C-alpha cells in the first residue's frame, strides 16, 4: 500500500513543489501536530483563516449542532436556511447601512468574480482598475486584476480593459475614468508584504470613484474579521466601499465567502437576467453556522481589541534585530522585511527546523509573514519571538552583521 507521502507526490495536482510536506494529523489553538507527534506553532493561520484558533470549542459545537440538522439542501437562494439569514443579518448589523445585502459564495475568488459581475451590471461599463502587487484570486476575472505579470501572463487572453495603478500613488488616481466599472483595491495590501495605505489615499480613491461613477470594491478577503484590530479593515480609513469582498476567516475554518453591497445594487443580479449569479455551495449552512460562532468568539473574547497590542509585542522586539530592516504591522498581521541580500530561503528553512510555520508573500521576496491565530496569548508571543530570533540567528550569527 502506498504511503500518504507517495500519494501526495503521485496523485495530487499541486500549485508548487513542496519538497518535504509536513503531514498534519491534528490541530488545536495555535498548534499543528504532525504524524511524528511533533508540535508546530502556526504563525500563518492557514493564510488568515484560523483567526479564532484551530478547533475553537464554540465553533466546533456550532458545526456539530448544524450537522445534526442539515447540510447542503439546495442551490443557493432557493430555500430559507436559518444559518444563512442569521449570518446575513449579523453582517448587516455590523456594517454601514449601505452594505445591507450579502451574496454568499464559497471562496475569495468567487467573491471577486461576483463583485466584477455586479459592477458591470450596475454601470454598464467593462473597464476595471486594480493595483500592482495585488492578489485577488486564481479564477479568470480575479486573475485579470492580479498585479503581477509573471503569474498571469501564461493565461492570456484575460478580461480586457484592466488598468493597473501603483498603490499609494495619488497622481495616478486620475487614471480612473468614466470607462471604469470598478476599482478593486485591498484596504491594506496583503501579498505585497503588508502595505498600508497613506493617510487619505483611500478617501481620494473614493472621491474619484464618486466623480466617475465607478464602483469602489474593497477586497479584504485576507484582512477581515479582526485580523487588523478592527472587525473590517476598511474601518481604519472610515471609507465605505460600494462592494465589500470577504472570505477566508469568515467561515471560522470552513469554506465561505461573500460579496456585499446595497440591496438596490444587488437587485441587478436577481433581475434582467434572472439568475445573474448562481452558486451551488455558496453560504453552506455548516460554514454559516461556524461563521456565526466565530464572530461571536471574536467579539466576546475581545480578540479584535487585543490584536493591535499583540501585534506590537512582535514588532517592538523584532525591529531591534540587526537582520531586520522593517516591520510593517496591521494588528496581528505583520510583514517582516529582512535586510537586503539576507538569505531569506535559509531563514524560512530554519523556521521550519524550529517548528515554526511561517511563510513568504507572493510579491515581496525579502519579507516574511507573521499572522498567528488571534487567540495567541502574550506568554506564547514572547516564547515565539524568542524562537523567531533563534531561527534567524541560526542562519547568520548576529555578531557578524
Ligand atoms: N483576495 C485576497 C486579498 C487574497 O489574499 C486571496 C487569497 O489568498 C483571495 C482574494 C482569493 O481567495 P481564495 O483563495 O479563497 O479564492
Describe the protein.
The chain contains 13 helices and 15 strands. The longest helix has 18 residues. The mean pLDDT is 96. Bound molecules: pyridoxal-5'-phosphate. The site of pyridoxal-5'-phosphate has 14 residues, from α5. Pyridoxal-5'-phosphate binds next to α5.
Task: List its salient traits.
single chain, 401 residues, alpha/beta, Aspartate Aminotransferase, domain 1, Aspartate Aminotransferase, domain 2, 2 domains, seven-stranded mixed beta sheet, four-stranded mixed beta sheet, binds pyridoxal-5'-phosphate
* Beginning-to-end CA distance, first to last residue: 50 Å
Class of secondary structure makeup: alpha/beta
Element string (H = helix, E = strand): HEEEHHHEHEHHEEHEEEHHHEEHEEEH
Radius of gyration of CA atoms, rounded to a whole number: 21 Å
Question: How are the secondary structure elements laid out?
Answer:
Elements: H1 4-11, E1 24-28, E2 31-34, E3 39-42, H2 45-48, H3 57-67, H4 82-94, E4 101-105, H5 108-123, E5 127-131, H6 140-145, H7 149-152, E6 162-165, E7 180-185, H8 201-212, E8 215-219, E9 243-246, E10 257-261, H9 263-270, H10 285-300, H11 307-318, E11 324-330, E12 333-338, H12 344-353, E13 356-357, E14 359-361, E15 364-370, H13 378-395
Parallel strand pairs: 3-13, 5-6, 5-7, 7-8, 8-9
Antiparallel strand pairs: 1-2, 2-3, 4-10, 9-10, 11-12, 12-15, 14-15
Task: Please give a quick description of this structure.
The chain has helices at residues 4-11, 45-48, 57-67, 82-94, 108-123, 140-145, 149-152, 201-212, 263-270, 285-300, 307-318, 344-353, 378-395; strands at residues 24-28, 31-34, 39-42, 101-105, 127-131, 162-165, 180-185, 215-219, 243-246, 257-261, 324-330, 333-338, 356-357, 359-361, 364-370.
